[in-house]
Amino acid sequence: MINKDKYLINREKFKKKLKKKKFFEIVDHWALYVGIKNLAKFLFLFDEIKKTFNLEGDIAELGSWKGTNVVFFAKILKIYSKIKKRVYCFDSFDGIKTFVEQDGIHINKYFGTYKGDLNELNKVIKLYNLEGVLKIQKGLIQKTVPSFFKKNPKKLFSLVYYDADLYEPAKVMLDYFSSRMVKNGVIMFDEWNKKDFQGETMAVNEFLKKNKNFKKIIPKNTDQPSLVIKRIF
Hints:
Elements: H1 4-16, H2 23-27, H3 30-33, H4 36-51, E1 58-62, H5 68-79, E2 87-91, H6 118-127, E3 134-138, H7 141-151, E4 157-162, H8 167-177, E5 181-189, H9 198-210, E6 214-217, E7 227-231
Parallel strand pairs: 1-2, 1-4, 2-3, 4-5
Antiparallel strand pairs: 5-7, 6-7
Helix pairs in contact: 4-5, 7-8, 8-9
């Protein structure tokens, strides 16, 4: 395993040598520059999305920040054009702001962090012609999720990625999405069992105690997501 601190120091030194390179010269050779941890995550996500190809139901992410995961999902569906699914992005794009007691004192230092740029995300969506695949649901998850299912009561999902970090949106997501997950569908959690994000962990653990139709899976070869729950019946 790579020493994280040493890697970050070396990465900063390496970055200075890249200043003369053009943006898309780096982007198009992403496999050359991407960190092993990030690569492990996206290899895992690719494996998981492939498992949904034969399942009914769409894909969603809650807490998308810059939109990296949802754009990745949408691009995969674009490549496998015969797979007729949509990707839904739920985010306020205002960063972390709405804490509750269950989130704990560690969360205060994250106030206002993970603020996204919806304007830039929309430009990326347009650049790669993803408008027909990727749909944005802007606003607080606690409000947009109930509203979404009120308008789409029969909508089903095969894969959900939760990365909003906090207790209240995690609870709302589980309350609404769990009953709409198809058999063998999965919900993935980015910060489960992480010290600073005890609200997300608490919401998941409370849910699992009451719902035996989901199987708990600890991912291998990746730190994030840190937990997957799979609907088994």
